Input
Amino acid sequence: MTESEKLKETLFCQKKNGRLAAGDELLAEADRYCEGYKAFLNAAKTEREAVKEAISKAEQNGFTAFQYGKAYKAGDKVYINNRGKTAAFVVVGEDPVETGVNITAAHIDSPRLDLKPNPLYEELELALFKTHYYGGIKKYQWTAIPLALHGVFALTDGSVKEVSIGEEDDEPKFVINDLLPHLSSEQVKRPLSEGIKGEELNVLVGSHPFREDKGSELVKLNILKLLNEKYGVTEADFLSAELELVPAAKSCDIGFDRSLIGSYGQDDRVCAYPALTAILEVEHPKKTAVAILTDKEEIGSMGNTGLESDFLRFLIGDLAAMQGGDGTLALRRSKCLSADVNAGMDPTFQDVMERRNASFLNYGVVVTKYTGARGKAGTSDASAEYVAEVRALLDRAGITWQTGELGRVDIGGGGTVAMYIANMGVDVVDLGVPVLSMHSPFETTAKFDVYMCYRAMLEFMK
Ligand code: MN
Ligand code: MN
Output
């Protein structure tokens, strides 16, 4: 090493590709870990399915449903299920809850197409569903790909019928048709944002007419007959349903070297799975560890299953109260990793990034001090002191990490749950995995980064 090389080593902040430095053993561990992650992606395509899957895994690992008023002792493991769409997992610490807890929060809702309350109609002897998109999507990406239908019918007798059609190879899928290029001379002149318009996201669901009789809307009638036989529902039951169309494709490895993962819904299951698997491993932490998998992040965290609600405040309050402590004090002394994705640098779209501050695939878990838009509007800008703490924690544990920003200044922006948690007095910073094609039906991540995200979550909560 020359003098300048030595000095650079000490003084420069240098980013490196994590796969270069990692040994074969670590990479093999990351590969193994990601097999579980891929299975989770396939089993949990909606927030309801993610809550179910997470609670089932938690119960297998000794977690029980939290009972208000019961006294829990250090080492106890409980979960809280909020309406089947948000769940929190808690390992009680040695220190009182009032002295603060360590929270990881990831979201389990992803952009998709919801059915409207009156979705089913027939036109030109084809049956279709009207949809209303959920979250930020580029609408043209959702045409001409196989879709699966997930969700529930809630019936007036109080029962709930679960729906999942299109995931198995032998099950039918659904599709939104696009115009053939031959007849698209007008359509292709539209701006990209209107290439497919919201009211053109109509899903083809059948074409066979009910043949017993003469009449109109026989294809629609036959679809309702099939749904009635399978779920016992009528058209009115769509009024109290939550049915969501998601890509039917399964997660898979990407690339000759299998170093990447392709799947729907990685924003933010790529952080939710690490937060979950980490808390399942936490045993007797000093501070109480809390992992939250939340709903509604993609539409601004609103509603009683989103993190802008008082769900977290009440949860910490309940945990403090069982020890005779104060929940507000607990929150003010708590720390949080808001676990969400960042936009990875894409070789094809480098212009939207500022490369000195962008995140790269395979460079490890990303710490994002702030998101927001324009002059940092709509974000929690983490304090230098808290970022220093997180830096020290990651470095001490030998976790490969990098910093990221959500694109060049003034090019766009976005937000996470960080600001809502920060508003409760908690110290928060965003930490997650860089993603390519974020919010598309098929997003890409790097296995190495996913594994580093898990390592970071575990280190933070254990
Ligand atoms: Mn996200
Ligand atoms: Mn998102």
Remarks:
- The longest strand covers residues 112-123.
- The two ends are 39 Å apart (CA to CA).
- Residues 138 and 193 are 7 Å apart (CA to CA).
